[in-house]
Amino acid sequence: MFKFNLLEKEKVVTIYRQTEAVLFKPVIIIFVLIYFPWFFLIKYELVGSYDRLLFFWTVLVLIYGVHIYFVWLLNAYIVTDKRLINVVHKNLLNKKVIETPLERILNVSFQIKGFWQSLFSFGSVEVQAAGLSYPLTLKNVSHPDKVKDFLWKIHNQHAVIGTLTENLEIKHQTLSNTTKF
pTM for the full model? Predict the structure, then answer.
């Protein structure tokens, strides 16, 4: 659905999106905006007088609905084997990308608040990372406790691999320095 450039030898591990439950409110709004004009114009037999206006209104509301769906679809939280990437679209023309290397993750927490989030098991995951002035937030993801655990798991795996690589580089540098004499 969207194109994103990965680094050399980088692989996507998983992609998270906001839960479908966040689309419930826009669907209700779209239903009301289409149903009530049709209902009252049919009830009072005014459809013939306002048929073009009603058709235009319905098309406009449906375009709004498609826009909401595409914005929801384009918002993604991408976890690669090297970084965590947050792609946020406010609308189709306003995109913000925040990324952080996995080794810079300091803390991962989640929050489920309210009746609906508890009922449908979705919430927000906050990732605090070195170099970011505010936490990277993964909003309205399903099962935020599992997302948090997964992020810690991949962070720890990356930290172990990074430590092994650093140790090998230090040993290689030490051996290079001693053989120069």
Answer: 0.80
